[in-house]
Batch of 4 targets.
Target 1
Amino acid sequence: MTEESTTGEKEFKVSGGELLGRFRDLVHQGNVRHIIIQNEKGRTLLEVPLTLGVVGVALIPAYAAVAAIAALVAKCNIIVLNTEDE
């Protein structure tokens, strides 16, 4: 029996005020490997690759960037790439 992993992609539409909270929730899920934040027009504002070894201190710059983006945009999209083991 072999283990295969597939990559799933989810997209969330959030307001600027919800962005940081949603970002934190996604990071704490554990199975997320990449988060992309885009504006309403689809332009990428931030890409954050996540690995299994990433801890809270390493994410402080990412949290600061997400907070700055949240202050500047009214609405944005969060695209989440995660790995699901089957």
Target 2
Amino acid sequence: MSFQPVLTKYIQKKDSHTLAHYKARGGYETAKALIGTDPAMIVKVVTDSGLRGRGGAGFPTGKKWSFLAKDTGKPIYLTVNGDESEPGTFKDRHLIEKDPHQLLEGAIITAYAIGCHHAFIYLRGEFILGYERLKAALDEIKKEGYIGNNIFGKGYHLKITLVRGAGAYICGEETGLLTSLEGNRAYPKVKPPFPAVSGLLQSPTIINNIETICNVVHIMKHGAEWYRQWGTAQSPGFKIFCISGHITKPGIYEIPMGTPLLELINVHGGGVRDGKKIKAVIPGGSSTPLLTGKKIEEAKLDYESLAGLGTFLGSGAITVLDEDTDMVKSVYNLMKFYHHESCGQCTPCREGTGWLEKLTSRVYHGDAVKEDLDLILDVCNQMRGRTICALADAAIMPMTSYLKEFRQEFEARLDD
């Protein structure tokens, strides 16, 4: 069956962000029909659909919901993670700015399914238009009685609070986000306990990505089998991919999971800019190892295919690097980013990212010696697996990948 965009179907339409436009295409009818039904049924349908989290980890959404601690005597919270900050990732921003009611309907359905009466949407601080659009959308549905007390007249109460971050990348990490939401410095927390057991204010909390929540609306409207007609057995459905870098038509493209990487680049993205050759591809955001050579030809855009090639689907942010790319400069830019965004809580990350920036700076400026390349790898080894969250690993994966695949470029910059 040919695929037509679902999540992004209306984002180019005029006034797609308004309630009038959303209702004209059947908006909130799915939520209205579901409120008052068995919440366990919603969890089962989402579980059966095979929907996996779209924020990067790819954990099965229904399974995450099922881990929620029950009968604790504490309130249950839903937190929607809109702190999209991974370099090269810009899909959620479009969903927030251009179809906020799709997100809100998904949040209502999800909150009802997990027994939540207070949901939070945490937005990246730089998303000014997105914040304004979501705030206006919340005001619209509050007036309609779609949130608040006795929504849809069915005895269910739900409050949704919109929160802006302050621009820190670390807030995309779920426990860092919760710490920020509580009004504290955004330090990630040790897991376990996981948020589903002890999250916001030590209460059971589900954290889902913007795109994940938007999928819920359509899965509950059409069913699990409908969703599974696309994608693969282990990575069903469709996903929004961001493509940027040396590409003719950068942007977001919603395609079935399992689509060949080169199909996205050449058919949807129009090929490499100026007819040049591909040197490497970052397949899932800046923290994922590079694809080069035959791996680019073999790669399919699903979790299992990319894992088999030694990398990750991640957030679905694909960056194309052409034959003229200075790989030393490229990874130096990444190391500056990770050093700047380290929260500083863990010494291996705080100091390690600083050293990786210093060492790649030496190489880039021609001041490094051969031993510095070995020192880079040694620093990476000392950082790996020694921190509370995965930011340190997010820095070392591209660093080691760049050095492994393009060591000759690093060696050519050494001060002999």
Target 3
Amino acid sequence: MSRLLAAFALLPGALWAAEEAEVSTHTLDNGMEIVVIPDHRAPVVTHMVWYRVGAADEPPGKSGIAHYLEHLMFKGTDEIPEGQFSQIIAANGGRDNAFTSWDYTGYFQRIAADRLDLVMDMEADRMRDLVISEEVWRPERAVILEERKSRVDSNPGAILGEQRNAALYQNHPYGIPIIGWEHEIRELTREDALEFYARYYAPNNAILIVAGDVTLDEVVALAEEHYGPLEPSDDLPERVRPREPVQAAARRVVVEDPRVRQPYVLRNYLAPERDAGAQEDAAALTILAELLGGGITSVLSQSLELEQQIAVSSGAFYNGTALDSASFGVYVVPTAGVSLEEAEAAMDTAILGFLEDGPDLEHLARIKTQIAASEIYARDDQQGLARAFGTALTSGLTVEDVLAWPDVLAEVTADDITRVAREVFNETSSVTAELRIGEPEVTE
């Protein structure tokens, strides 16, 4: 059992004088990791179970199985009939949900602290005793197909995003959509789901995160009672994914669709992820995204929206919390009468100017102050804080990395930002995506 103290003081002069935050950890004998984040302001807890498995861990040809299983996890056990899990949570004044990404699958409940025993009992029950009956697996697969149709196939922007990812990751499964390819979803079976469940849904592949009005001792006692008796998986594979080759050519994908109302151009570059004990480049890229496209004072906004007035919107984005290679993106939405070619050229000119001149030091200081403040304000979001730890821990980072992140951000220099920008803005490792207004189909 370990206790880690973090002041979360981000910059000299300490912007925040609140109490130090204590994050405690423990590991059960069956391998289940526990993280406790105390917050005694209200008698409420957020209970999360994160599994180190996501869409990027799926067997070849089985895309969508991780997300499909997330749905099936609500279909009941011998103890809790189908449809009752969320109803029981709601009847006790709580709410629950689940989510799947490429690197993780998570389940959470937010409920009164005196109901923590109940939600642990329920979550432990479905960790190893899920029932996937013949009556539920086919209808739920149909639900997934309908979800894909409504969220992806009926949305030109989502189609473009899916094709962009597939082009950006030429060998890595991050190029496969989380929801899955339609033709592979249609072939998923009950046996596929049961095999995936038996292999990955086990205490030695899970992280329990509890934030709220609790202590470590209270959480460990309940976890020992409910999760402790569960047997670990003896079939848990090492998380080794296909690696990206050296990319040798820029790629471009174009979606033209008459349903498009606002065309735009977006470019993604392969970029390094946050690595355990080595977060410096990711921190510099985080600040680079803010400098280039984080708001009205950003480089792209000032140039494209205010000075040239050729864009209604522009921006940059980066999220390095990933087990494998991340990406850095820039985009521009042109004003009426401005072509995508003109908008893209102006975006590239602004980026080139930044690479030549480097960041403005006053602007950099403001951005670092804003980021520091946002890190502080995030501590008021109990569920968001728990999610930040869960995302990081299932993506190869440690509790120490999460606690150190504000300090790593604070230490980023202008030279660091210029260096990572020049490394990341490599045309041959980029995909440019265009969303265009297409001609209506002519029916005879």
Target 4
Amino acid sequence: MGQTAELDIVIPVYNEGNEIVRCLMALKEHVKTPFRVLICYDMEEDTTLPALQLPDLEGMNIELVKNPGRGPHRAVLSGFDHSSAPCVLMYPADDDYNAGVVDELVWRFRGGAEIVAASRFMPGGGGLEGCPLAKALIVRVADFLLVHFARLPTHDATNGFRLFSRRTLETVHIESTKGFTYSIELLAKVHRLGWKIDQVPVKWFERPDKKSRFKLLSWVPAYLPWFFYAFATTWLRRPARTVPVKSS
């Protein structure tokens, strides 16, 4: 790819094997925005890494980012730290069906959005196909409350699949430490700052042949502070000055 990347796509991986090729080939085929892929991995033995040498991926702008810690949270943040494009997208490693909406996410960013949420629950979204009942219930209830009562301007606050502006990543201090909680944290803080948030409908399928990295019991408590943070913005009128920002 000779053009300078307008978009960095951060993909946290964990033993994806050759399945990562389906994801990357979909991006190669459908995304017209000049982009770079940042593959964020925990260990040198990860089965994803050999698959990246396959001839099908030749010509793609792919860089490896070693996670200095372990787990998806630290992996994604390592990708953010390594990124340099005007906008950065966290994209799931097992998603080979939403590549066609990536240019739309970027288009919304160009229109002034600091965060563009990939929404499973807005009109046109695919919902939670094949999702276990307990997980689906928690996610549905949380998102319903956040959009209708906390008034977050997206129907899908809990999805980690999300585009962030360079301004967001360079301004807002991330305090969370578990799972994909950074995503709802940034959403809640950008909402409190009064910056523009947009959304685009996407599909979502639970992969029966792959164990989910979403740890329901251990991660839900980590999400709760940001759930209440969003409510405090709307109902207690917490001002923008209460949002921790990075020192320049």
